[in-house]
Amino acid sequence: MIRFINNIYDQLHLRLDSLPQAILIHGPRGLGKLHLARLFAQRILCEAVAPARLACGVCDGCRWFLSGQHPDYRQIEPEALTAVIDAEDDADRPATGQKKRPSIEIKIEQVRALAVFLNTGSHRARRRVALFHPAEAMNLNAANALLKSLEEPAPGACLVLVSHHPRRLLPTIRSRCVAFAVRPPDALKGVCWLEEQGVASPAQWLALAAGAPLAAMDLATSEAGKRVGAWRALLEDRPDD
User: Is the confidence at residue 85, as pLDDT, over 70?
Assistant: First the structure.
């Protein structure tokens, strides 16, 4: 998907020497915004001596980042996105009543815990990066807590907010971020990429996904997509009245 976001990544890369305290990457779903944000976060934390457009992928910083263990990186998401359920263990565990559903919000406790991280010195003598995805999932208390961090930024820290609906963020948060819009690629490029992924009838799926290639692929390979495909086949095979 990097071919669709090269221009935005280049703009972000040019800011490495004068990194803003907060970056807002926004656009419709299915365009690879989280992938872009993680690429940029990895580049910030890369420890390669020679500067490059992309992270080297082999230094200690990159290896820790790719393994999800980098001490100077945090990714803040709703519990519903990060919860992992072990079906076998769950089946063996005796029933203890109704289970609490994972939250679909980013809670104030998550943002407060982040404040400790942001104000602690870097473990690698470099920067610290916190990524919020999707940023509009913050409830009001969490958003107000984040605003305090934006008003009094910690030295060496960078916040990266990924948002599908930036207008749902507090205006005071948006005003303190450098914003980068990610827009749908040219339709032909989107179709070509979907063909490379083995998606049949890519132009139709891309149109259904409003031009977002990742969303089109998800739709084409989902159960809902299979039903849509079956209905389309029936309609195409139906004789004219």
Answer: no
